[in-house]
Model the fold of this input.
Amino acid sequence: MENVGGLQDRVNSIVWYHTMDLGNGVVTDGFCKTYLGADHLPDFEAKSVLDIGAWDGYYSFLAERAGASRVVAVDHYAWGVDFAKRNPYWVECHEAGVLPDHSRDTTEFWDPDMPGKRGFDIAHEAYASRVEAVVANFATVDPSSLGTFDVVLFLGVLYHLREPLAALEAVRRLTGGVAVIETEALLIPGRDGWSGLEFTAGCYRGYDYSNWFTPTLEALHEMCRAAGFSRVTTMIGAPSPPSPTTAGPVRQTGDWRSEALRIQRGVRRRVGYALHPPLPVPAPPPEPVHYRALVHAYA
Ligand SMILES: C[S@@+](CC[C@H](N)C(=O)[O-])C[C@H]1O[C@@H](n2cnc3c(N)ncnc32)[C@H](O)[C@@H]1O
Done:
């Protein structure tokens, strides 16, 4: 094991996704700020674990520490895309109001040296870990080459995929016991129980074009069942919709109401009298709420 100063220098030389304590006071400064706790995760003791979309490997190493018999970390996108080169292109697209050409991620922005895997490799070495890293797209990898796992972690990946149902079918093929599925999710207040997907390719967060579909909790359950899971339990569900007094910024209703009144006045002016009493102005539709949902889906 190298000296602490050497490790700290290597840690400082890269951008981290996960915050991890590598020992001897060396802690990575990841930009992911929220983590699942033990109460949301299954027991890893003596289990085989597949961590899909592992990135720096926080959950892979956690499973290993918690006694997993075997841990495989699979990723390719965040490991191979050179974000320092690619992000300015996405900013340009955002400013020009056009959608990016995603195929460039796997051509000119792809770096076979896997710059995004350096964090995983540094942590792997610091922990003297036995976690096995596989560079692959889990959705297209030959399932027989990976096998099946007691626990499959599918955390923060679903909404990044263009074909969410096919992705869940691939997760199902790899799951022998339980799949832990965490995703960006959608709640439309007043439409409880609605099973739908929001399409966000046009980017709803700054210049991040990597989000495709955001499911409601009901859609997530139904997609899991359609993918072949036998039972799905909600571990983190939708938050209570914000009440008018605690809500943050609300949709501006001024334009909505004044437009309705303007049309009514115009009708009156044109025909000289009101055809009927002023129409009631409908309430504005409630703002959708985005949150992170977590389900356990059983094989
Ligand atoms: C938001 S990060 C989540 C990282 C980690 N699972 C967590 O929850 O902290 C999404 C990860 O999914 C990975 N990913 C996206 N599509 C993938 C695919 N088809 N196969 C494997 N990994 C994928 C990305 O490379 C990235 O590491």
